[in-house]
Amino acid sequence: MSIADEGGLFELPSRYRELQAEASELAASVAARAAVADEADAVDPVMLRALRDSRLAEVTVGSEYGGRFPRIDSLAVTVVREALAGVSGHLDSLFAMQGIGSFAVSEGGSDAVRERWLPAIGTLDAIAALALTEPDVGSDLKAISATVTTVGGQLVVSGHKSFITNAGDADLYTVLCREDDLFSLVLVPAGTPGITVTRPHQIIAPHVLGDVVFDGVRVPADHRVGEPGQGFALALATLATFRVSVAGAALGVAQAALDEALRHTTGRQQFGSPLARLGPVPSLLALSWIEIEMARSLAYRAAAAATRDPRASMHLSSMAKVGATEVAGRVVDRAVQVMGRFGLVRGSVIERLYREARPMRIYEGATEVILDSLARQLIKRHGAGQGSAE
């Protein structure tokens, strides 16, 4: 039970509680499909249909284009992801990427591009993808080699993007490219000639993932997203809005793992007592509960702040992402431990949650990269504080 459930000062406003209920209902309706979908490397049709019918993808676009809120609401995205991820990582990713893949278009796309794509994203009639990383480029995005040039009034995109979520099933890619000495984003419809998709990699928690090669792909000039050189600013704006939602997904995984551990340890008798009352098991369960509630409080606070001002609250979103994903890793590991040999069974819910938790500490900013950034901010603030005191 969360603080929000208990009411009082920290209760979520009713619109978010209603959204949580919608997302929980959706997740419950497809729970029986989760084991199949979460092993898929292509979009699962059952999950796609269920998410489309729920209309929850409307949360990922602004109300001008059929969305639920005037602008993308980070807290709304976070509470939905929390409910979905505890049941199916596939469903959570399908929902989240609609926003992550299209946010830059919402912020900087031309009128024609926004009118063409954003309503379809909100109804899930188009699947979005964001193409940033490359085979030799991960966190250091300034080292990318993909390029965009202007030829005969068109934009020409060339380059190789790697580990791209929704690759092969996406209807549009928002691609980060070099443009002379600048970095720009370009929207490339998936059906444009010159695009090749392969799936050379798969991760421990299977994912819709692939490499996308753009070989002289031509799109109209109005498919540049934002002005030339705004690529990093728009990518950062995407992170500022959606990074905190990873904390929501991690909370969903952690809570589901604790629920599995409770189901097992309260239902299994050892030495004449429930396992939940023996040895270190009670402490491990209680500590997991404490950490989940602490992480949830920070995640909701950070998501609410990101809804008001994403850039100004980026430090909070980063803290929440690190805190919740690290908690998820610890909670799932404890759950496996207290379940003993039953925690090691392949194909079980806890095995799936264990594998799902691990990548969360890497994607959308690895823990160590975020900690380094936070440390620099902390030291800078400390220095500024000393300066003002002297």
Keywords:
390 residues; Butyryl-CoA Dehydrogenase, subunit A, domain 2; Butyryl-CoA Dehydrogenase, subunit A, domain 3; 4-stranded mixed beta sheet; 15% strand; globular
Topology at a glance:
Elements: H1 3-6, H2 14-29, H3 34-37, H4 45-54, H5 74-85, H6 89-100, H7 103-108, H8 111-122, E1 128-131, E2 147-151, E3 154-165, E4 172-179, E5 182-189, E6 195-198, E7 209-220, E8 224-225, H9 231-267, E9 269-270, E10 273-274, H10 281-308, H11 314-339, H12 349-357, H13 367-389
Strand order of the largest sheet: 1-4-5-8
What is the H-and-E element order?
HHHHHHHHEEEEEEEEHEEHHHH
Main sheet specs? 4 strands, mixed
What spatial form do the alpha-carbon principal axes imply? Answer: globular
Helix amount, in percent?
40-55%
Computed CA radius of gyration, to the nearest angstrom: 21 Å
Structural class: alpha+beta
The CATH architecture name of the largest domain reads Up-down Bundle
Description:
The chain is of the alpha+beta class. It folds into 3 domains: about 5-120, Butyryl-Coa Dehydrogenase, subunit A, domain 1 (Orthogonal Bundle); about 130-230, Beta Barrel (Butyryl-CoA Dehydrogenase, subunit A, domain 2); about 230-385, Up-down Bundle (Butyryl-CoA Dehydrogenase, subunit A, domain 3). It has 13 helices and 10 strands. The strands form 3 sheets. It has a 4-stranded mixed sheet with strand order 1-4-5-8. Strands 2-3-7-6 form a 4-stranded antiparallel sheet, with no helix packed on it. Strands 9-10 form a two-stranded antiparallel ribbon. Helix 2 runs parallel beside helix 5 (about 75-85), helix 5 packs parallel to helix 9 (about 230-265) and helix 9 runs antiparallel to helix 12. About 50% of the residues are buried. Mean pLDDT is about 95; it is low at about 1-5.
